[in-house]
Amino acid sequence: MSVEVKHLVKQYGQQYAVNNISFHLQKGQITGFLGPNGAGKSTTMKMITGYLMPDEGMVTVNGIEVQRNPIDAKKMIGYLPETNALYYDMYVCEYLYFVAGIKGIKNKWQEIKKVIELTGLQVEKNKKIAQLSKGYKQRVGLAAALINSPEVLILDEPTSGLDPNQIVEIRNVIKQQGSEKTVLFSSHTLQEVTAICDRAIIINEGKIVADDTLQNLQHQKNDIATITISLREQHLQPQALQLPEVDRVEMTAPGTFKLYTRQEQLVRKHLLAFALQENLNIIALQSEQQSLEEVFRKLTIGS
Ligand SMILES: Nc1ncnc2c1ncn2[C@@H]1O[C@H](COP(=O)(O)OP(=O)(O)OP(=O)(O)O)[C@@H](O)[C@H]1O
Question: What residue segments make up the domains of the chain, in order of their start?
Fold first, then answer.
């Protein structure tokens, strides 16, 4: 089951909440949808699920155009909105029964039993939704999204506000679902995306700034390293360390330099040879890779 997002645009007044974005989601892949606050994640998800009409562009789910045929498309989608709207006065089972009814399920109790097990709601299933903790309310939302085994899951910040144990459990449910479904889930944190995704789409100010497998993003991460070298000799100028394969040199203190390079190993060798040749005394030599967070920051705030 594939999801095709083509040239989606949503504008509020002068502001583009989503500005001409396109991507393709495929079965068996969990895609993380990442971006800072206000980047356009929820707006995109609302358009994918047919809850918001785009100004331009279209979404198809397994060839069915969501905007033209929302009812057929919605049958294939399980959606957990960011504001997980539940009826607090209902009991958990009562609410799930209600959702199963809306979805036109025949064997309602059989389906409810299945989603309760999947989301670990057994212990709380007889309570009123208002009595549940935030994590369990989130599970009810997820259970509702899973009713009728939709092939596509669109989950808007499913772990937001949960404690670390609950986060791990919800992530496990998503992981398990991801092996046989098409899953898009949004998050602010790279750590989360790294934990369960195969691929990440990074959005900023309504535009996609990266769409790649985590493996490739890791390579991008490894692209630039910094090497900090401290020498006993304090008279050296930065130009002296502008060795081959060094992109840039900064002097951070007398005798201490920060070198930016894409060939960290080679530059370390050059540095040692240079120090030997010039009879310099190295006090410290330290390399640092860019973290994925830095890649994310670079892509979303350009620093
Ligand atoms: N109904 C609306 N009217 C006006 N502006 C809106 C509306 N809905 C969203 N926006 C704006 O569109 C931009 C994108 O919002 P959206 O909720 O999609 O971001 P997000 O990436 O989901 O953010 P967050 O991570 O904070 O939930 C924001 O600047 C938001 O203020």
Answer: 3-214, 224-301
